[in-house]
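Work Package 4 report. The design task specified in the project plan requires that, given a folded chain encoded as structure tokens, an amino acid be chosen for each position. We show below one input record used in the internal validation round.
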């Protein structure tokens, strides 16, 4: 039996679809656990996750470090010397280590789609630095013909414009294309922004394979 694509083009999100991204892994073992607990505290309105979003929107590493320090320093003299600031700086220096692998089964699925003649693309809330590192580290990502990256566009999902921009740049027919994201709201936003485009929530490689490939 031959495999055929349900869609001519599939656009993939990166984190939690193609890639297993674990930012704490980049600094685990080189920074004190209590320092990392504070840096990665989800309840801190000016913690790592706040600046991760700003990074995805194009903020530079130095701007992020300066702003983080300004919100956490106990005195002007401590702006650049707190353990948390140093841990954040270390994260940027070692961030490739946060790319711990590809999501199970996605390397094989990309190859199957490519062999079936399906054109594969990327659309991600990420930095260009991270995308370049991922494509260098994981050969299966080489099937992606192009990637729209939020940090370069200065907008991110679920802004409708980023979906329209991706479809236009890839020059694809949305009525024969799908966008895959681990978050339902992003998949829904893609379908709402671009008439004809199918949004698919990623729940695992096996289920996605069934949605994207058929056997004749």
């Amino acid at each position: 039996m031959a495999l055929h694509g349900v869609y001519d083009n599939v656009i993939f999100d990166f984190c939690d679809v193609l890639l297993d991204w674990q930012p704490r892994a980049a600094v685990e073992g080189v920074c004190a656990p209590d320092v990392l607990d504070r840096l990665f505290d989800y309840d801190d309105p000016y913690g790592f996750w706040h600046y991760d979003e700003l990074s995805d929107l194009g903020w530079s590493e130095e701007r992020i470090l300066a702003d983080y320090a300004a919100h956490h320093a106990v005195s002007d003299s401590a702006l650049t010397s707190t353990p948390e600031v140093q841990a954040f700086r270390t994260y940027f220096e070692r961030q490739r280590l946060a790319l711990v692998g590809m999501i199970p089964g996605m390397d094989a699925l990309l190859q199957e789609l490519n062999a079936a003649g399906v054109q594969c693309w990327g659309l991600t809330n990420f930095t260009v630095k991270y995308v370049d590192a991922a494509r260098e580290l994981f050969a299966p990502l080489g099937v992606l013909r192009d990637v729209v990256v939020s940090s370069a566009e200065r907008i991110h999902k679920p802004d409708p414009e980023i979906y329209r921009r991706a479809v236009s740049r890839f020059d694809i027919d949305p009525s024969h294309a799908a966008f895959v994201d681990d978050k339902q709201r992003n998949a829904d936003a893609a379908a709402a922004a671009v008439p004809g485009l199918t949004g698919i929530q990623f729940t695992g490689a096996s289920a996605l394979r069934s949605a994207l490939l058929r056997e004749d």
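Strands lie at 3-5, 9-12, 19-21, 99-102, 119-124, 144-149, 177-181, 198-201, 213-215. Validation will be extended to a larger panel in the next phase.
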